[in-house]
Amino acid sequence: MSDMPPSKDTLSNLLAEDRRFPPPSGLAAEANVTASAYAEAASDRIAFWEEQARRLDWGRPWTSALEWDPPFAKWFNGGLLNVAVNAVDRHVDAGHGDQVAIHWEGEPGDTRTITYAQLKDEVCKAANALVELGVRAGDRVMIYLPMIPEAVFAMLACARLGAPHSVVFGGFSAEALRNRIEDARARILITADGGFRRGKPNALKPAADEAAEGTGIERVLVVRRTGEAVPFTEGRDVWWHDVVDRQPSAHTPEYFDAEQPLFILYTSGTTAKPKGILHTSGGYLTQAAYTHHAVFDLKPDTDVYWCAADIGWVTGHTYIVYGPLANRATQVMYEGTPDTPHRGRFWEIIQKYKVTLLYTAPTTIRTFMKWGDDIPAKFDLSSLRLLGSVGEPINPEAWIWYRDTIGGGRTPVVDTWWQTETGAIMISPLPGVTAAKPGSAQVALPGIAADVVDGDGVPVPDGGGGYLVLTEPWPSMLRGIWGDPERYADTYWSRFAEQGFYFAGDGAKKDGDGDLWLLGRVDDVMNVSGHRISTTEVESALVSNPQVAEAAVVGATDPTTGQGIVAFVILRGGTADKGPELAAELREHVAREIGPIAKPRQILVVPELPKTRSGKIMRRLLRDVAENRSLGDVTTLQDSSVMDLIAAKLPTSKED
Ligand code: PRX
Predict the structure, then answer these.
(1) pLDDT digit string (tens) for 414-467?
(2) Residue range(s) defining the domain that contains residue 305
(3) How many CA atoms lie within 13 Å of 596's alpha carbon, on the beta-carbon side?
(4) Is any atom of ligand 1 closer than 6 Å to the C-beta of 391?
(5) Domain with 468 in it: what CATH number?
(6) From the alpha carbon of 521, which atom of ligand 1 is closest?
(7) 418 lines ligand 1 (CB under 6 A)
(8) Which atom from ligand 1 is nearest to the alpha carbon of 525?
(9) pLDDT tens-digit profile of 207-222?
């Protein structure tokens, strides 16, 4: 663990925040979950979760609610269910087949309206097609798709077959996809010719081909979205419209064990190798459905819900696919970027579909703030009744802007803390109960046990700061890291092994009321626009370029993206520093290795890196340098002021 963010100034600024926003009385009176849930869950946590599990349809009830052999949990063991049936079929069977499940909005302005009955047909056809392509329960299926309805069909078809999916964000590179295919040992890949982004077709198939080459991928199912010409490998590749469309729309679901793997989602850790976070079925779906019901207060007959995340992240899994569909939501799904074809696109969509519940990330909110209040002012946003935030700490200023400018000063804002590993929301206000504090995620949800502890695992008193831990197992917890139980135990459970706490990797502070304020990562993981990227991953991408001898990467505070990636590189002997040209080359190289989201904001060529005596790079120093000076794309630091700056800081910086 390298250090504890953030600076004391940020902390005291946050804690000086004394505005309070009690729930609107109408919402509180009708809220799905009231204050009694806390007491109920506290009196018998396991019974509370059993009650939530009964929201789902089970083919056979569980025999034990929780088997906890730390750090391995089994929830609802002995129970049988089909996740896709819970998300789709049961709503149709209950007479809601004509209800819209998805209002899909393509970036170019094309739309598709998909009812629950149609969703059921599409999922069944896709499941039949996957069976024809050889998919059996337990097989891993890779999904590399843009934000099109087929992404949802494909995920649910896998769930229906008990075949865990592994969705890879469409913005990741061929190399990143290949690593994940190999780690998951997948035989099937579902992709598309491309998607629309910023007004242009954005090809995916060439990267999918490059990734699949030489791996165990035997069949590639390709959705036609852009219509652009793409390379096609005879015998391996098949078009979705050829294979899926001719399938029968009936498919008899099998019931699977509650612990049947549902998906693997790769996320960055502190090493260069992403971790395949494994989630299973019954516990995951229980907490996905419960938290969506409790935190968003969804009323399935009247609300229109929109989670503006991508399906490639856990937010898309839990709060586009599994939670909302299990709760029979009507939701909006949008393919593109917020500024295409104009910067009011989000607000236009909200006006068009009369969206009532919106869930997005602080980075996006801060971008909207930068673009100006006059843009949302042109649209009717009066349908909104609740706003959610996720992915990174939301600063009070952005929180207030979100509530006032987007929510018209009426809407509660729920700041939801969770992780790929937790599977679902863990810490959040309840919109009908909590008096909200701008910038604080506040308290653990009913049934969830979180605390802030010091380095010895001792809970800090109110007003103290330390490490965020989860002190009891929860239904949607990760069940492991795919293929690496040791790394699972080591990463999450060894830091506070004595206490048996799950260590989240985040710093947090308890205020005088015991409310939680999240302070960002305390490990070598950066959070750029709400996306996790490890410093080591970017460093190893940089050193894989023949011009680079050594690299050190830090996340520096960025007013819009939360953190920005700053790389310090030492060139190989004989390599000329070509200035901006070199920086551009290296940025492109990182984009090719990982994906454009991992491109460093700045690259600084340095003659040496500050290291401890044991050879560990002193990132804290580098972060100070990155934050204290606005430097150009490339600065040659040979004997220059930056090294002087580092030297000047040396005496006051503790070795980590
Ligand atoms: O540092 C925390 C931050 O995002 C990390 C989890 O990232 P990921 O697994 O990609 O999942 C993002 C979407 C759930 C956490 O360890 N984080 C997430 N939500 C918040 C947050 N930090 C502060 N406040 C939040 N609401």
Answers:
(1) 999 999 999 999 999 999 999 999 999 999 999 999 999 999 999 999 999 999
(2) 1-82+273-523
(3) 3
(4) yes
(5) 3.40.50.12780
(6) 1
(7) yes
(8) 1
(9) 999 999 999 999 999 9
